[in-house]
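Review box. Two proteins, two foldings.
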Amino acid sequence: MNAFIRSFASEWLKRKRSLAAWLVVCGAFFTPAIIFTAKLIRHGHLAAESAQPTYWQHLWKSAWESMAIFLLPLGVILATSLITQLEYKNNSWKLLHTTPQRYSVIFGAKLAVVLVMMGQFLLLFNVGIYLAGVLPGLLLGVPYPAAPIPYAAFLSDDGRYLVACLPIVALQYLISLRFRNFLVPVGGGLALWILSVAVLSWQYGYLIPYTYCSFTFLQGQPRFAQPVALLPWAVGYFLLFTGAAYGLYVQQREKG
């Protein structure tokens, strides 16, 4: 456990030299910033909106609309590829493998950094939604929203989106470990994301794991209903891709 913690701390420091750290912060506040700006422009509606009992639910849905279908999958594709490819970029795989660390520790620490960054992204995104909901009113003298924040429902949604992202993380991790060229994992991820958007109305769209973020947002709409529970499939794909990634990583003759 101590070896894993030290390896994780080392990988966490490396992320500061990657655009992935900025991607998390900028991506998390991008949609809330647009909502904040729109509320300031349409300030005449602020008082009426703040008095609605479903104010926070409406704000939450508005924030997740573009995030779930567009920004979150693309952000995961880019961040996972950037973090995993740091060793290729710095030509430091051989140096890393001379350290007294098992392959399983190196593999797990890098993957853990990506997963923690996902949690960091969701936390910042939640903070951004809250600020977008209250700051315009505070700046313009509109009373604080009367409706209570449904914390339990929002945390439950966060958990579902986190699980829905896991297959994307695992497959991007696999491809990024396997190929030296950064364009391969990014290009492959973008192609699969485009495919996922194209099959959202397909009855068997759940077979494409990149659809799960979109389906999580679109749940309840008959047009996009799927015949299976998506979250168990997401976990299954994550375990399958992670196991395959580890097997390929360990058996690869030239690691970097």
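Next protein.
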Amino acid sequence: MENCLFCGIAEGKIPSKKVYEDDTFLVFQDIQPAAPVHVLIIPKKHIATMNDVGEEDFAMLGELHRVAQKVAKELGIAETGYRLINNCGPDSGQAVYHIHYHLIGGTKLGALVESSDSHAI
């Protein structure tokens, strides 16, 4: 997708601090972390929002959760706990219209009052 920030990151046109990558997903450090561990998990395929996920994408989203589990273990937060957050649409605070999940942990997380795209925990 032209002019999509996360597509540019996935294509290597925009630099990022990669944590994990395979043929389908990229995981990279959030540039404004809300917790000691804060990475973004994106599919390389452009899908704007959760509402745009098609039947053909459901298996891929299941795999995304496997990647989240693997990355949480690699980052040392699987045992203590973490949040996996997806924001959908403007009222949720979605800032980049390329489906993505925030994997947040590394500290005791309080009640989530604001959207993670606005970096509140």
